[in-house]
Design goal:
elongated; 7 strands; two-stranded antiparallel ribbon; alpha+beta; 3 helices; about 130 residues
Length: about 130
């Protein structure tokens, strides 16, 4: 098992999830913002696969859904009733990342502080539904 798979099993055994660190999102150049979104989306696919290998024995599985459309790149992670939407909205030469959890966006847009925080986000979705 991978270290992340052990973290998922630890949640199922009652260990609390790590806190998800976010930072205020600022507009940035489209190439850099879309590159970051693609990296995070690729990591999300890996984490969902690893988590589902552990969760499969317990019923529900994580979902990973992509949204297709003009003006940005978006994917949603879901577990049971919880969802986290990771979006990079493009406008002209600028893009803005935004994280929305369970439909609740903050007044100021926030994003994950780094790609490693995606692990904490996935774990938090699972933890809040396993209690």
């Amino acid at each position: 098992m991978t270290p992340f798979m052990h973290s998922v099993q630890d949640l199922l055994d009652g260990k609390p999830a790590p806190r998800v660190a976010t930072v205020r999102s600022e507009p940035g150049p489209v190439p850099a913002a879309t590159d970051t979104q693609v990296v995070v989306r690729s990591l999300a696919e890996q984490l969902v696969s690893e988590a589902n290998a552990v969760l499969r024995e317990h019923g529900d599985l994580l979902r990973l859904d992509d949204e297709v459309g003009p003006g940005g790149l978006t994917f949603t992670l879901g577990y049971r009733e919880r969802n986290a939407r990771v979006q990079t909205a493009v406008s002209g030469r600028w893009a803005l990342a935004r994280l929305t959890v369970d439909g609740q966006a903050e007044d100021q847009p926030h994003r994950l502080s780094n790609a490693d925080e995606l692990q904490a986000l996935v774990l938090s979705l699972i933890a809040d539904q396993t209690r």
